[in-house]
């Protein structure tokens, strides 16, 4: 099958060791394997206090009174603060809409909302002090779903909204609504020979990063504060923290502490403001570390969703139209809900060519836990549903599900439902071909010379089957994810690059505020500097707010945007260095003026390979330093009525094939293999890229068969806030994940790269569901699938 | 209460330990050894895995008092522990001193590929195989994997998965962790 697009070619610095395209190793690897890497929870300071947060025990209530006297009387307690102790009139924060109280003001809107904070000299003292705070709640009715949110006379989660979305939403309990209408669905429907409808449910997933929310706030002599913190975006935190503290931004200094994973869950603030408030109040350093229980309440989750789809096709399998309605539960506070709605709607039909669409996506305000960013961000829920629909359509048409997808696959030039052309390679059919062509795992792997190896069977060492009742199934799925912040957001990054001679050799320094959360951005920045400056030695400075914003480590954007900023700054440094060389040595060789000059192996060379000078001699005692912002091409908002607009920057595509074995009698699933094919544009570090694909695939597997935050629909309280009751895949649950990586350059992006982190999280889940359907013949319209869904006991 | 124990070959004592404190808390907050991680505090994630008299345990589930007079090996001492083991002896006292370990500052990224750092084979293999992303699960996995390889130098994939099933990782999808353990075993078999 032909594909458009070609791999990127690199000339500058291509001969420099450890440059882009190599699987160089992490610069923080040694620290992380020896236990020396300082995560936010490892921060320690002389004379440090421990902070603790009191959270609401009910989901929706008026606060009648708060009595902190017994807590304050406990020896070892230094401070207790409530809403009344906040220092300024700015008492709310939020990513887009400032609707989230720092501490509850008269009302709590979800289970686990922060009500009061304590600082004490031992964490157990702080915990006991919070238990002595008496809060008198008067409970209110809870809003838990679309019906209760929009019923006549429904309780409003937020009264007196004045955010920009409040003007166009049909109900105050709807955060944002985005319709997308294109073509004529009614006319297209009349052309359809087959129409399939489906209703789907997507459970609430948790990011479950292993390093809990934590940080250390240290008061400073100028009345400011220095916060060492695990976050995804230092400058976004700063913008929200400083006004609440009543401090100018230059007196809130922020340094990134080690981050134990993120996956979207650190986009919103957690304990940042609380630690700073307590530090400023007590005059002592304050550390706050959530435990796992609190972490489940301390960050937003992936939006659970209800999705209603109608797909039509002609008898030969061409899509005529898609109608869909996606209802996302945003919970009590807005967080990233508006942008999640934008993604779910604009990517709602998936990587397919379909001219006539009628799409609506909304996010609700409810009294459920707040939901926001998680890897895949709105595109995940849609992919689960539209891929189930494609299988349903294939079955109705009597077609092979992969062939149906390939027949309708988008290509370069295809218009999205928003009218935006996909103007880079879109090898959707090719990815499906590749993933289907990968060798299948052997049948009945549990059979060994000594009988069944239980570890290879559904149920594993629980010894529930030796192969009886076990059926294999195979399923496919493909997805599309946008890369970067969309809808007109000014999505820039900043890099400071310095080149100087140290210890007799040229050394590059790269300073950005990028949050390294495990993805390997620090590895890639060093590679870019080596390639662009032709040097071996690169120092990556700790991320902090002494340099301009790098934007968020999310939306698969950092290698593109901060990587782009580092490359841009390196190019500017290179030009300055070459100018320096021309001034110093230009008269000695005509090539300084006439040839294209490169930096390679610590030298200035011509494109013909002739060495003109050593960088050590060119630089001498001078340092060349540039700090510069860098932007990708701009995007536009979606029209509020039609959804039309060039809203996205770039796309990322992945396809999966899942092979599962199901014990159909007990409803136990073992995923045998999850093969993935993904177009990565250009793999700057292939080892890291594969790691992203395998990690993303596994999070998709988790929400297919086990992961769900269970919220009681009567009380809106969370029922399983622990790793005992909220299960994430172990190494026994996770199959082999062979990866086939395609590299077709996106000419708009640095080195032709594509953001890679999220796409594999999309198609993994529907592929597993399709495989379980294939094995069992069941409809399975919800995820995660639990044993009771497979045995007919619900 | 007062607690005496041996950590990474070095006798340690901690005063004023509250009876409710876990071994993990004492290691992290009193002995300046924060390498063992606290990710769930209920024995589900394995991030706090240490060896207690040689046995891998979740140190969050061991009351500090239970470690009285016993020997603990943490990720900070893993390289020395592995080196002593390969020499066939128990060796002298060694490990990270509390004074060194206490002044934690946010680290910049230095040359981190491990070469020449005297790492245990399993530590080097985790770096080489790309088994480290955020790294929060890494200390516990290293202690668990090292112990498994001590018992079973030539494990099958199913053996590795069974032995490491108490250690959660959220970043890698475990494939590179499998690679790292296989790599450790393969390098050892080449040496023999």
**Alpha-carbon distance between the two ends of chain A:** 44 Å
> Helical content of chain B, roughly?
25-40%
Q: Name the chain pair with the biggest interface and residue counts per chain.
A: A-B, 76 and 72 residues
Q: Indicate the CATH class of the largest domain in chain A.
A: Alpha Beta
How is the largest sheet of chain A built, in terms of strand order? 3-7-1-14-11-12-13
- Unreliable residue runs of chain A: none
- Structural class category of chain B: alpha+beta
Strand tally of chain B: 5
| Class computed from helices, strands and strand pairing of chain A | alpha+beta
CATH class of the largest domain in chain B: Mainly Alpha
Content of β-strand of chain A: 25-35%
User: What is the domain tally of chain B?
Assistant: 2
Main beta sheet of chain A: strand number and arrangement?
7 strands, mixed
What features would you describe in this structure?
- The complex is a heterodimer of chains A (794) and B (192).
- Chain A has 794 residues and is of the alpha+beta class.
- The two termini of chain A are 44 Å apart.
- Chain A is globular and about 85 Å long.
- Helix content of chain A is 25%, strand content 25%.
- In chain A, strand 4 (92-93) and strand 5 (100-101) form a beta hairpin.
- Chain B is built from seven helices and five strands.
- Chain B has helices at residues 23-30, 78-87, 98-102, 121-129, 138-151, 157-163, 175-191, and strands at residues 3-7, 10-14, 49-52, 55-58, 71-73.
- Chain B has a five-stranded mixed beta sheet with strand order 2-1-5-3-4, with helices on both faces.
- The radius of gyration of chain B is 16 Å and the shape is globular.
- Chains A and B meet through helix 1 and helix 17 of A and helix 4, helix 5, helix 6 and helix 7 of B.
């Amino acid at each position: 099958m032909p594909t458009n697009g070609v791999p990127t070619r690199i000339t500058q610095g291509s001969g420099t060791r450890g440059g882009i395209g190599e699987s160089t190793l992490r610069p923080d690897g040694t620290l992380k394997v020896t236990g020396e890497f300082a995560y936010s929870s490892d921060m320690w300071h002389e004379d440090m206090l421990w902070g603790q947060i009191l959270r609401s025990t009910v989901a929706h209530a008026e606060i009648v009174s708060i009595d902190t006297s017994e807590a304050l009387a406990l020896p070892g307690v230094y401070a207790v603060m409530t809403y009344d102790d906040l220092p300024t009139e700015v008492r709310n924060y939020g990513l887009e809409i400032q609707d989230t109280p720092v501490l509850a003001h008269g009302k709590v809107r979800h289970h686990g909302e922060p009500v009061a904070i304590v600082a004490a000299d031992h964490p157990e003292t702080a915990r006991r002090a919070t238990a002595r705070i008496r809060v008198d709640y008067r409970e209110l009715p809870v809003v838990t779903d679309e019906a209760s949110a929009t019923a006549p006379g429904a309780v409003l989660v937020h009264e007196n909204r004045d955010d920009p979305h409040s003007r166009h939403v049909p109900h105050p309990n709807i955060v944002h609504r985005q319709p997308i209408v294109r073509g004529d669905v009614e006319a297209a429907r009349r052309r359809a020979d087959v129409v399939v409808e489906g209703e789907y449910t997507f459970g609430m997933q948790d990011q479950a990063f292993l390093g809990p929310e934590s940080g250390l706030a240290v008061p400073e002599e100028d009345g400011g504060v220095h916060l060492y913190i695990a976050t995804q975006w230092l400058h976004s935190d700063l913008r929200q923290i400083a006004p609440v503290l009543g401090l100018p931004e230059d007196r809130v200094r922020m340094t990134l502490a080690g981050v134990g994973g993120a996956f979207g869950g650190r986009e919103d603030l957690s304990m940042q403001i609380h630690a700073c408030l307590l530090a400023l109040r007590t005059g002592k350093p304050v550390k706050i570390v959530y435990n796992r229980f609190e972490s489940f309440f301390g960050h937003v989750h992936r939006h659970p969703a209800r999705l209603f789809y109608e797909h039509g096709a002609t008898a030969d399998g061409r899509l005529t139209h898609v109608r869909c309605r996606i209802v996302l539960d945003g919970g009590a506070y807005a967080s990233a809900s508006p942008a999640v709605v934008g993604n779910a709607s604009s990517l709602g039909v998936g990587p397919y060519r379909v001219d006539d669409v009628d799409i609506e996506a909304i996010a609700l305000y409810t009294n459920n836990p707040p939901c926001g960013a998680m890897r895949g961000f709105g595109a995940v829920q849609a992919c689960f549903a539209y891929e189930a629909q494609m299988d349903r359509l294939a079955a109705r048409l009597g077609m092979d599900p992969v062939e149906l997808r390939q027949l309708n696959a988008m290509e370069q030039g295809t218009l999205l439902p928003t009218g935006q052309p996909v103007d880079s390679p879109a090898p959707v059919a090719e990815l499906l071909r590749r993933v289907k062509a990968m060798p299948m795992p052997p049948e009945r792997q549990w059979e060994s010379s000594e009988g069944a190896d239980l570890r290879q069977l559904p149920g594993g060492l629980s010894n529930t089957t030796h192969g009886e009742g076990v059926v294999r199934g195979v399923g496919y799925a493909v997805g599309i994810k946008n890369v970067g912040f969309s809808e007109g957001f000014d999505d820039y990054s900043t890099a400071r690059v310095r080149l100087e001679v140290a210890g007799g050799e040229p050394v590059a320094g790269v300073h950005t505020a990028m949050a390294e959360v495990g993805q390997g951005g620090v590895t890639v920045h060093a590679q870019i500097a080596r390639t662009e400056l032709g040097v071996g030695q690169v120092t990556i400075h700790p991320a902090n707010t002494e340099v301009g914003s790098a934007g968020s480590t999310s939306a698969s954007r950092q290698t593109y945007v901060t990587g782009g900023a580092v490359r841009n700054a390196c190019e500017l440094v290179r030009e300055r260095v070459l100018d320096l060389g021309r001034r110093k040595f230009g008269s000695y060789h005509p090539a300084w003026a006439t040839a294209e000059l490169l930096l390679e192996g610590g030298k200035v060379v011509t494109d013909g390979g002739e060495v003109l000078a050593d960088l050590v001699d060119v630089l001498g005692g001078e340092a060349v330093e540039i700090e510069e912002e860098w932007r990708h091409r701009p995007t536009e908002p979606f029209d509020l009525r039609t959804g039309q607009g060039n809203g996205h920057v770039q796309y990322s595509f992945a396809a999966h094939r899942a092979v599962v074995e199901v014990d159909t009698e007990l409803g136990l699933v073992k995923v045998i293999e999850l093969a993935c094919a993904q177009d990565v544009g250009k793999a700057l570090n292939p080892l890291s890229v594969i790691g992203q694909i395998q990690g993303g695939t596994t999070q998709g597997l988790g929400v297919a068969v086990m992961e769900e935050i269970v919220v009681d629909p009567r009380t809106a309280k969370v029922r399983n806030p622990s790793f005992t009751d909220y299960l994430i895949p172990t190494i026994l649950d996770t199959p082999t994940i062979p990866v086939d990586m395609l590299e077709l350059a996106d000419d708009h992006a640095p080195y032709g790269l594509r953001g890679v982190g999220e796409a594999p999280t999309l198609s993994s889940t529907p592929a597993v569901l399709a495989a379980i359907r294939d094995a069992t013949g069941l409809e399975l319209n919800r995820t995660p699938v639990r044993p009771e869904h497979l045995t007919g006991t619900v | 209460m007062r607690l005496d124990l041996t950590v990474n070959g070095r006798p340690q004592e901690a005063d004023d330990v509250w009876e409710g404190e876990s071994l993990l808390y004492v290691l992290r907050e009193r002995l300046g050894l924060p390498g063992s991680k606290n990710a769930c505090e209920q024995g589900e994630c394995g991030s706090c895995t240490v060896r207690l008299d040689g046995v891998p345990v979740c140190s969050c589930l061991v009351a500090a008092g239970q470690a009285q007079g016993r020997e603990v090996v943490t990720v900070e001492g893993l390289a020395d522990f592995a080196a002593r083991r390969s020499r066939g002896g128990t060796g002298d006292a060694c490990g990270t001193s509390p004074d060194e370990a206490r002044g934690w500052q946010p680290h910049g990224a230095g040359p981190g590929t491990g070469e020449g750092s005297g790492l245990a084979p399993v530590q080097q293999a985790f770096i080489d195989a790309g088994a480290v992303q955020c790294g929060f699960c890494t200390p516990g996995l290293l202690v668990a994997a090292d112990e498994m390889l001590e018992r079973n130098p030539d494990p099958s994939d199913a053996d590795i998965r069974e032995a490491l099933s108490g250690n959660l990782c959220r970043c890698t999808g475990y494939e590179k962790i499998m690679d790292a353990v296989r790599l450790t075993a393969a390098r050892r078999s080449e040496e023999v």
